[in-house]
Amino acid sequence: MSSEIQLSLFNEESNFDQRELIPTDAKIPVPPGTYTNMNELAQHCNQCQRCELGSTRTHAVVGRGHLKAPIMVVGEAPGQNEDETGLPFVGRSGQLLDKILASVGLNTEHDVYIANINKCRPPNNRVPTPHEMAACLPYLLEQIRLVDPKIILLTGATSVKGLTGEKRAITKIRGQWIEWEGRLCMPIFHPSYLLRNPSKEQGSPKWLMWQDIQTVRAKYDEIRQSDGI
Ligand code: URA
């Protein structure tokens, strides 16, 4: 090997060229540590054909928020607004999600990063298939590794199933901490479920969400205190 080629192996751009060659077929794993930053991951997602959703997307929807956020929210999959803008949770559910977070002083500028199980929009907003979720999961795992959140909020049963593999009714598990890969996770209602159930009566989904987000805020404060932040 010429010394010029050897030297080029130390050059960041040439390393990234190699990553771009990683096949995007779902059968081929994306090993942990593949991406050194979110831009590389986003670039790859926008070229991805690991499942059939790649052929109908406008934009891959990777994430928004603080890239080192202590709290990460994981949704299901992009809808039309997200597919058009390339940003997660920017439609009506996203506006409600931002309000829920803001109600306890959290926002994507300082504390929160938002991503989805699936990066591409399923046609007619159908639930992603198990194959589509499995094909996309390595990207989410890389996002979790890069952001390294202390707390992960899983919005709805699809998000719980997509990340942990556990098929559980969200009404049964919301508001309870679970541990996944050494990280604290809390299943919560999906904001779109709250849009369909607007009552704020005691015991209603919105009321329960208010309890859950306060529990999350309290845990976050506890962690900050024990970390001396
Ligand atoms: N619903 C989701 O689960 N994710 C989005 O990004 C938007 C709506």
Write up this protein.
Pfam families: UDG. It is an enzyme of class 3 (hydrolase). It catalyses: Hydrolyzes single-stranded DNA or mismatched double-stranded DNA and polynucleotides, releasing free uracil. 43% of the residues lie in helices and 12% in strands. A six-stranded mixed beta sheet has the order 1-3-2-4-6-5, sandwiched between helices. It has 229 residues and is an alpha/beta fold. The protein is built from ten helices and six strands. The radius of gyration is 19 Å and the shape is globular. The chain has helices spanning 3-8, 12-20, 38-45, 80-85, 92-102, 130-147, 157-164, 170-173, 191-196, 205-226, and strands at 63-65, 71-75, 112-116, 151-155, 178-180, 183-188. Uracil (URA) binds next to helix 5.
Quick description:
This protein is an alpha/beta fold and 229 residues long.
Which class best fits the helix and strand makeup?
alpha/beta
Strand order of the largest sheet: 1-3-2-4-6-5
Helix amount, in percent?
40-55%
Number of strands: 6
Count of individual helical segments: 10
Choose one word for the global shape: globular
Order of helices and strands: HHHEEHHEHEHHEEHH
Q: Report the portion of residues in β strands.
A: 5-15%
**Average of pLDDT:** 92
Rg on CA atoms, Å = 19 Å
Q: Cα distance, first to last residue? A: 50 Å
Keywords: 4Fe-4S, DNA damage, DNA repair, Hydrolase, Iron, Iron-sulfur, Metal-binding
InterPro entries: UDG_Type-4/5, Ura-DNA_glyco_family4, Uracil-DNA_glycosylase-like, Uracil-DNA_glycosylase-like_sf
EC number: 3.2.2.27
Enzyme class: hydrolase
